[in-house]
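Query structure, 359 tokens:
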């Protein structure tokens, strides 16, 4: 009887130790970002990503979502929040911290991007090849871009000269430089500030893709939207989904593998696809509202390209090796665009109506 009691006690102790070990491996990841939960990346990427790793870990990884900067700070502070362990995972715009990601900045240059999917894939490959040192303070999950950026304004932009003196919101130093070269007055601000700035007349318009017009209700605040002919969009912005390095390193190997399996090119493409799908929705919303959707013809688009060329030249001249980065970015974008069979008029989508295309 004594032996039986001892064995039972030992078994109980081993079971308790096992349960304690399992509990120690469980983790809750706090995901922090700037937009409301119904915005494209939070709803179509971050939430499914969290659900996938939760299911694949049999519940050992739980994900909590904190939209609209609910955990404090401002959008430009998100990357540091992940670095410092204030939160576990962030999604942020790299251009909100000027000069911090000079290699990643390559993809913001005018008229080199094509569509959200192909350019996101190209950007992921580019960073893995050329710019991982810019993310060595965090565990990088993925990078991506948005679709073709275009103008959304109170007054129509039908030619380059129409931009003269307009106060236009820009989302990064490269885009603000572009706006200056095109004759506008750039006003830098994070994207959540755009609706109030438009309503109060602080800005006359903004540069964002169609997708971003949805959560910001931009099609209700302005009536004019200007895109460009050809395969290349006016610009794109760059984004990162990043995890605190200590959080990642503290995971057991099997949970690290689950994170890894849902990172990299797979996650970059997922973000690009979500952006592209919502670009079509944003365009349709503007069309349904009867807004003025303008497609600049090839000749006028070329005038914009010519005026923006000095942005590229100035950026290349700032540091050694930048021409090689630009060449590689263009080659990767061309490669992924050809592989995806993508490419359409910049600022428009496959779902554009005939009426919109004829503007």
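Result returned for the query:
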């Amino acid at each position: 009887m004594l032996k039986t009691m001892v064995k039972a006690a030992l078994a109980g102790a081993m079971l308790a130790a096992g349960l304690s070990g399992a509990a120690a491996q469980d983790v809750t990841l706090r995901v922090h970002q700037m937009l409301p939960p119904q915005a494209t990346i939070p709803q179509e990427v971050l939430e499914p990503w969290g659900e996938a790793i939760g299911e694949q870990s049999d519940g050992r990884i739980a994900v909590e979502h904190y939209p609209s900067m609910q955990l404090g700070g401002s959008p430009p502070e998100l990357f540091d929040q992940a670095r410092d362990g204030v939160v576990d995972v962030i999604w942020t715009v790299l251009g909100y911290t000027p000069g911090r990601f000079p290699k990643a900045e390559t993809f913001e240059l005018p008229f080199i991007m094509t569509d959200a999917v192909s350019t996101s894939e190209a950007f992921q490959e580019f960073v893995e090849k050329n710019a991982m040192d810019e993310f060595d303070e965090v565990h990088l999950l993925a990078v991506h871009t948005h679709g073709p950026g275009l103008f959304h304004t109170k007054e129509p932009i039908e030619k380059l000269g129409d931009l003269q003196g307009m106060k236009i919101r820009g989302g990064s130093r490269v885009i603000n430089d572009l706006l200056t070269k095109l004759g506008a007055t750039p006003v830098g601000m994070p994207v959540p500030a755009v609706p109030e700035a438009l309503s109060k007349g602080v800005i006359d318009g903004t540069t964002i893709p169609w997708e971003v017009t949805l959560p910001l209700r931009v099609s209700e605040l302005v009536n004019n939207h200007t895109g460009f002919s050809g395969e290349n969009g006016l610009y794109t912005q760059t984004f990162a989904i990043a995890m605190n390095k200590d959080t990642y390193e503290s995971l057991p190997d099997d949970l690290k593998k689950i994170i890894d399996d849902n990172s990299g090119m797979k996650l970059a493409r997922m973000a690009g696809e979500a952006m592209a799908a919502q670009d079509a929705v944003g365009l349709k919303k503007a069309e349904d509202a009867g807004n003025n959707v303008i497609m600049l013809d090839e000749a006028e688009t070329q005038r914009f390209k010519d005026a923006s060329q000095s942005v590229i030249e100035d950026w290349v001249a700032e540091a050694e090796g930048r021409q090689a980065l630009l060449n590689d970015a263009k080659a990767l974008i061309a490669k992924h665009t050809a592989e995806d069979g993508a490419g359409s008029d910049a600022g428009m989508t496959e779902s554009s109506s005939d009426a919109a295309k004829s503007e």
